[in-house]
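MFS transporter: structure tokens wanted.
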Amino acid sequence: MQSSPRSTGSERASPAVAAPTYEVAASPMSRYRWRVCAMLLAATTISYIDRQVLGVLAPFLQEKIGWNELQYSSIVTAFQAAYALGLLCAGAVIDRFGTRIGYALAIGIWSLAAMSHALATGVLSFAAARFALGLGESGNFPAAIKAVAEWFPQRERAFAAGIFNSGSNIGAIVAPIMAPLVAARWGWQAAFLCTGALSATWLVVWLLTYRTPDQQPKLSTAERAHIGSEPVVSGARVPWSQLLRHRQAWVVAAAKFITDPIWWFFLFWLPKFLHAQYGLSLLELGPPLITVFLLADVGSIAGGWLAGRLLRRGWSINRARKGAMLLCALLVVPIVFAAKADNVWLAVALIGLATAGHQGWSANVYTLASDLFPRRAVASVVGVGGFAGAVGGMLISTVIGLLLQLTSSYVPVFMLAGGAYLVALAVVHGLAPSLEPVHLDVQTKPQGE
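Answer:
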């Protein structure tokens, strides 16, 4: 973390309450932190457009190039393997170099990787492009969560995380609108080139505008005080070997390992399910997919809002976080009936309810990292969790490929999805009954000193 700016004499004067009260009253509260949140939302949206384009085009590409189910699962697994490997070091790189440079490195890699899909001609070349994309995109969530920890006090973090995490749904909405239209007009290669250009544009804006709160001159005194209402932790980055000694790190890892694979299934197999089960063409996939991920978007923001609302009502962090997670887990349960739905829109409703539950769950799981660990360790903890989720995704991709190749049935997958979140919540509660935060051997100082 970078050092805070020098304080004036009035800021250090005693009593400490008088000067800040006068300065806050004299300086209207700015909203620059929400501009930062908008940037994180845009990056997450682009990230999910990049990864979702393949899922949307998969039924078409499978017929054109001749993949079978196992070959498609191997392409998906290549992305997840790289994503897992990238998360081994992404959080550490971001904690070491800071959010601005770390995020820029990640999105630069994935921008080039997204465009490289246009050169792919078969299973191996698609797998190579997906592998590179996974390496780059592994930095998105560690960087975004660290930015939230830098720019928001604890009571606002779940809501901010819910907002930027909703970009995963927006991206999944934009992709089925954009990809078929671009592919139909200019060819499937153009769809991948367009998404790469979006991420390259974001990179330029990010480097020109992003600074940490202590270096951002556009902040008002009131907003700076609001952001700095919690202590800033000083010291070097915490290595994974030290983090994994704490049960709280395994809380985040277990929650991600059990539930992230369900989201991977939605992203990469939902278009194939709708095509196989209901005979939807490439252009007909748009409305059902848009509906599913619009519901997911609502769930992402509502899940973060609910936890924050419960905290403002006086609930403890433990009770509020787990209460919100329980509600989200229950929303996923009805998906067990989706594979046997009589019509496409009943299936869409059940799946959309589940994606809403997942995204509300996910917003709270990400916030667990900043609930349980000091700011300087947050990106590394999110990296641990993301690695666990990617490993779980690799396993589920292989299992789904084998199941579909042998049985052509989605019933077991939907049954697995329906119970995963309740199991994950039980594991979280077992590992951390009270969500007691980790107190690392570091010094703290009030922001502004």
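The radius of gyration is 22 Å. The longest strand covers residues 231-233.

Cheers.
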